[in-house]
Amino acid sequence: MKELIEYMAASLVSNPDAVQVTESTEGNRTVFRLQVASEDKGKVIGRQGRVAQAMRAILRVAAVKDGSQAVLEIE
């Protein structure tokens, strides 16, 4: 799932080399933290958060297919 987030974020931003995804486990869910360059945060979040919501929905579906829970945080 980490690769999926990296791929989606790198496709959106101007500086794909600055995309970093860290993964940690908190309780029974996996938390993915996405870091991008400061000038690209708006592209990843989108208008009224629509792009971020879509990325979270895709991640949630992928996690359910694996039988787990996942959360995406954008920093």
List keywords for this structure.
75 residues; 27% strand; three-stranded mixed beta sheet
Write a structural description.
This protein is 44% helix and 27% strand. A hairpin with a 2-residue loop joins strand 1 (20-26) and strand 2. The chain is built from three helices and three strands. The chain is globular. It has helices spanning 2-12, 41-45, 50-66; strands at 20-26, 29-35, 69-74. A three-stranded mixed β-sheet has the order 1-2-3. The chain is of the alpha+beta class and 75 residues long.
Number of strands: 3
N→C terminal distance: 18 Å
As a percent range, the share of strand residues is 25-35%
* Widest sheet, order of strands: 1-2-3
Structural shape: globular
Give the fraction of residues assigned to helices.
40-55%
Average pLDDT reading: 94
List the uncertain runs.
none
Short description:
The chain is of the alpha+beta class.
Write the layout of secondary structure elements.
Elements: H1 2-12, E1 20-26, E2 29-35, H2 41-45, H3 50-66, E3 69-74
Parallel strand pairs: 2-3
Antiparallel strand pairs: 1-2
